[in-house]
């Protein structure tokens, strides 16, 4: 008798256990669908952009080498010329120049936050810099257009638009990225390293310059590459201040274009499927390939972390 | 030069740089606010834009931005949290998992314009959603998913492992543990991260140019039926957001007061972003104090 009650109990228990198992599957399937959506999205993104971008070469017969090295961009004449080198040059020059401006500033800010004035830095400077990251890019473009461009027009020959204005706007935009990573790297530095250096009689600057900087170099580079990647893909802020003339400029203050600005400006004005439109997708493909390159550089740098 | 002098000079330079950065930010904010706030009035915030005459407002654009933000969050939050839970709780360390991590990393560093182009090709043309709020919301979802995944992972990783083990020890299933133990503890982090993401969505323009469109049909703000063409709530109508509007009037604005409108709209955008930022901070702090024993 007792045994059968026990059996009944265990039977009931098994019955009760079932909804739990069903619930487990709900969780598993739901989260899996979410991650699958993400992975499928990125694959279709790569596929669609690549197939559109490659059709310039396959369907329209444009020579890929000519596209990358040509300097003449005349898509609307009888025998259209598609030389995208000015755009590629514009993208690289603005983003690298922006990193050259922003990297020392970001490093100094990080040193200030971690070493010089941790209290004030963490409470005030760091939130301020994070706030910079939140400002929309069109607002940067607007400020660049109404402050930096007129300023450059007065100070230097030319219209004020061009690589210098673009790089300056971008440098403010990527400063938060570089600073945040530099700050994290410096604060992860083991105290023993610093204390050892101080114990040998080194000054604070010697410690920063000879110990902290070399040890955190891979992370600092990661921050800079992330900044360059962000600057490289930025579209509207640059487009507003760069002038958008499709040729390689002779000075930093002459109108030029970037990959993103060319895409932004012409995508709406060309018919889907025409060679003029397809070649813009090729520019997008170059942009995408560069993103991959940046991601792999960052991965490589992360592998070289010394801490 | 002695090492001590160099140290002093370097310290001075670093101090100056820090001061310079603060000055740049304050100058930036001050410039936008001083130039723009004077132009903000109730009329400016609610009236429709004028293409050629002066005196246009940003009413529909402001509404579009807010509506698009809500739509995007409705799609992004469940997807992002789900994917984040998978990455932090279900994914076993394997080649596949590290591959997914790489994919997420790549997606997070994709330029927003590429996401916009993908939206144009697939959402607008292939799926036939047209230039619409819905296409825009999906494009922004793609753009923000990696961020949402990272935030969720961060939040879940911050939960003390003892809490999870205690729940398992009581015989509670994994999914139930995630839902009723891990997620509530991670909520402050996830919520403040989501608000920061919302600020990003609010200011994004490049991904929207070719998905949500650059024009806004005449809206009838008395018609709240989401199926009508002129209803503001119709998700399948083209919608120019505030950020796109700023870009458009700066590059091709014909109205005589375009610079003022751009300044006013920028100020509105900045104020909203500041509200999101400070709100996220305050809420995060409040919830941490409320939910945990930390003082």
UniProtKB/TrEMBL annotation, chain B:
Organism encoding this protein: Paenibacillus terricola
UniProt keywords, alphabetically: Cell membrane, Membrane, Transmembrane, Transmembrane helix, Transport
PANTHER family membership: ABC TRANSPORTER PERMEASE PROTEIN YQGI-RELATED, PHOSPHATE TRANSPORT SYSTEM PERMEASE PROTEIN PSTA-RELATED
Family: Belongs to the binding-protein-dependent transport system permease family. CysTW subfamily.
NCBIfam families (alphabetical): 3a0107s02c
Location, primary (coarse class): membrane
Topology in the lipid bilayer: Multi-pass membrane protein
Positions of the ABC transmembrane type-1 domain: 62-280
UniProt name for this protein: Phosphate transport system permease protein PstA
């Amino acid at each position: 008798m007792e045994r059968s009650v026990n059996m009944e109990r265990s039977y009931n228990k098994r019955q009760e256990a079932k909804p739990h198992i069903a619930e487990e599957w709900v969780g598993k399937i739901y989260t899996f669908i979410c991650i699958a959506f993400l992975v499928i999205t990125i694959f279709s993104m790569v596929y669609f952009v690549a197939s559109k971008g490659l059709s310039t070469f396959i369907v329209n017969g444009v020579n890929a080498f000519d596209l990358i090295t040509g300097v003449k961009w005349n898509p609307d004449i009888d025998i259209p010329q598609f030389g995208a080198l000015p755009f590629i040059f514009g993208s690289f020059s603005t983003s690298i120049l922006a990193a050259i401006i922003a990297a020392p500033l970001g490093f100094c800010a990080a040193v200030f936050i971690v070493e010089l004035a941790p209290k004030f830095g963490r409470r005030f400077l760091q939130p301020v810099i994070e706030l910079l990251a939140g400002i929309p890019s069109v607002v940067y473009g607007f400020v660049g257009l109404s402050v930096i461009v007129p300023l450059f027009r007065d100070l230097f020959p030319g219209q004020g638009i061009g690589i210098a204005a673009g790089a300056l706007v971008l440098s403010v935009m990527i400063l938060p990225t570089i600073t945040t990573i530099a700050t994290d790297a410096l604060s992860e530095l083991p105290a023993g390293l610093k204390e050892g250096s101080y114990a040998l009689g080194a000054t604070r600057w010697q410690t920063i310059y000879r110990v902290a900087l070399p040890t955190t170099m891979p992370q600092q580079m990661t921050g800079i590459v992330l900044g360059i990647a962000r600057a490289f893909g930025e579209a509207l802020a640059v487009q507003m201040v760069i002038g958008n003339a499709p040729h390689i400029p002779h000075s930093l203050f002459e109108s030029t274009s970037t990959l993103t600005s060319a895409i932004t400006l012409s995508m709406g004005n060309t018919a889907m499927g025409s060679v003029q439109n397809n070649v813009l997708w090729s520019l997008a493909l170059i942009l995408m390939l560069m993103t991959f390159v940046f991601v792999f550089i960052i991965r490589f740098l992360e592998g070289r972390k010394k801490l | 030069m002695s090492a001590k002098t160099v140290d002093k000079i370097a310290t001075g330079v670093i101090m100056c740089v820090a001061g310079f950065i603060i000055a740049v930010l304050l100058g930036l904010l001050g410039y936008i606010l001083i130039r723009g706030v004077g132009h903000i009035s109730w009329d400016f915030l609610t009236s429709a834009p004028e293409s050629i005459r002066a005196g246009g407002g940003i009413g529909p654009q402001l509404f579009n931005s807010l509506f698009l933000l809500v739509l995007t969050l409705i799609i992004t939050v469940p997807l992002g949290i789900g994917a984040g839970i998978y990455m932090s709780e279900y994914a076993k360390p394997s080649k596949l998992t590290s591959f997914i991590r790489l994919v997420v990393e790549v997606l997070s560093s994709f330029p927003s314009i590429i996401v916009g182009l993908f939206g144009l090709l697939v959402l607008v043309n292939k799926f036939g959603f047209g230039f619409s709020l819905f296409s825009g919301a999906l494009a922004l979802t793609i753009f923000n998913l990696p961020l949402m995944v990272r935030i969720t992972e961060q939040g879940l990783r911050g939960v003390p492992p003892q809490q999870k083990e205690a729940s398992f020890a009581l015989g509670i299933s994994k999914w139930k543990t995630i839902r009723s133990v891990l997620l509530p503890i991670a909520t402050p982090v996830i919520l403040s991260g989501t608000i920061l993401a919302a600020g990003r969505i609010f200011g994004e323009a490049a991904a929207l140019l070719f998905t949500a469109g650059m024009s806004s049909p005449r809206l009838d703000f008395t018609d709240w039926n989401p199926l009508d063409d002129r209803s503001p709530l119709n998700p399948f109508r083209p919608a120019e957001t505030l950020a796109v509007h700023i870009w458009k009037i700066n590059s091709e604005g014909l109205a005589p007061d375009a610079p003022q409108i751009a300044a006013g709209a920028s100020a509105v955008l900045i104020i909203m972003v500041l509200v999101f930022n400070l709100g996220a901070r305050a809420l995060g702090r409040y919830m941490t104090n409320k939910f945990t024993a930390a003082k």
